[in-house]
Amino acid sequence: MTQIIRMTRLYAPALKEDPSDADITSVRLLTRAGMIRKTGSGLYTYLPLGWRVIKKIEEIVRREMDGIGGQEIMMPILQPAELWRESGRWGTYGPEMMIVKDRHNRELCLGPTHEEVITDLIRNELRSYKELPVTLYQIQSKYRDEIRPRFGLMRSREFIMKDAYSFDADTEGMDKSYQAMYDAYGRICEQCGLDWRPVEADTGEIGGSGSTEFHALADSGEAELASCTCGWAANAEIAECVAQPTEIPDHDSIEKVETPDCGTIAKLADFLGVPQSSTVKALAGKVADGTPVVIFVPGDHELNELKLSHIKELAGFELMTDDELQSTGLVKGFIGPVHLPKGVKVAADQSLKNVAHWAVGANEYGYHFLGATLDTDFTVDVWGDLCAVKEGDLCPHCGEPIKMSRGIEVGQVFKLGDKYSRALHATYLDKQGKEQFFQMGCYGVGVSRTMAAVVEQYNDEYGMKWPVTIAPAHVCILPLQMKNEQVVSEAEKLAQQLADLGVETVLDDRNERAGIKFSEADLIGWPVQIVVGKRGVENQTFEIKNRMTGEKQDVTFEAMRQAIDFSGRQEDPVKVFLGRIANVQLGKPDKAAYTKSLAN
Ligand code: ATP
Ligand code: MG
Question: Which site from 211, 394, 454, 491 is most exposed, i.e. has the minimal number of CB atoms within 10 Å?
């Protein structure tokens, strides 16, 4: 049994106009429907309906965490700086960390994540291999001073996250814990109704040996994803790029040609009458120790800075200024690997290994070499996967052309290995009584971001369309004429009957025009709307609308009476009522695909 939610009593101030600073659909609709309010830059208050959604997502997450043996705890949000100094992250985490000082001038941070705190928690107390594995989790507000808080709940400075941490005796155990979490994340996405995809991901500053992100597919997503029909998918920031540079035609040996005004790839390709993929682009810069390096990539590709940062010889690469180019002896727009000034190193994207003859700058203003031959005219010091992937590149697994799409990262799982247990000296005693470092994993789901991601996927010009699993309520009853006693009494009666069954029922008992009730119901996006009108009462029918599909049907009072009569039936009333009467599915059927791990 639940309480009827009466619109006359509900604090859900709706707005007629879009908020002027809404930069994405979800924040616009959630704000207009009176579900959230902006308190400050990147700070939001959840109003009753918004908070109901958050709690439902949390419940789904909790059930899945408990289902794989996770145990819920609650750690402090305030974290002592000493722990972060011990792990070495105090200085490296960066300006996203919110730092505060206490009255004794001691530094603390508002937790952006909890690897340090939890490793400190278990060290000295989780002692024996017999107690392993252990997975602990919490659901709590996290703080990150994002450089650009934006897109409402997507990138805020305070947000709700479920974070979990696993402790195992060895890497096999860690892999198992990781896989269990991976599968649970898939089920969480499913139950929230998301169209989602797991993708290979960077481990970032958290570190570790392997990572997967869970993305809700949406054009409004900040992340770019590369994927293939074979099942391979990766965040574009780390996706291996298999570019297809083309050979410059009719140039088997080096020839210097005059290329006036061809200081850009576009102009050069145009002048030569070849596609940009037949040219080679040069990017001159300096790496961390000051060594000048020119990086060559196919003319139709761009550098990927994250990949560069992972290659030792290229770490810290920064493009040279015009002055630096000049003092190094490089000619802007005409740089090539042949006759480079002394001391300049050459790096190139791996895809160019297959291109014997290059069209490149001649290190002389107004000239290029066509057919400059690899290993004859020049050599390459460092080969690597350096380019950003793009549509048309080939899948590194199966060789088919890949597709690019956009996603919202709702969760991420990491294999940490012993990175934190070693730094904080967290050990257990193995069978032989020997000290060993824990093998850890850490796992995060953005609860508030998930709420926004669902709205991004389920909306139309009228408002939101909540999947019933996380909707602020299941059903909204709309009596159209509040002055008509029969209408009001039928609506009241039905609301009470549904609430008694456990169906979360809203009664729009406001003395408002029908048009306003309809449009607000669509804006909030109740999954099922039941209209009680004067004519309906005369004909003994309700009109039922499924917000997700737009389907409408008339249901007689008698059919409704039967649908809500559960005497002697064993079924779950909520599920059966919603399914039978309104054709609403409770959650999507399990998709086998999500268990197919990329980690294998
Ligand atoms: P992003 O790359 O989007 O900044 P992240 O990789 O730094 O996110 P994680 O450390 O993996 O984030 O955190 C786990 C989850 O917390 C993310 O998958 C995301 O759902 C959520 N999250 C992270 N940052 C924010 C934020 N600023 N606002 C809302 N949710 C966030
Ligand atoms: Mg992440």
Answer: 394
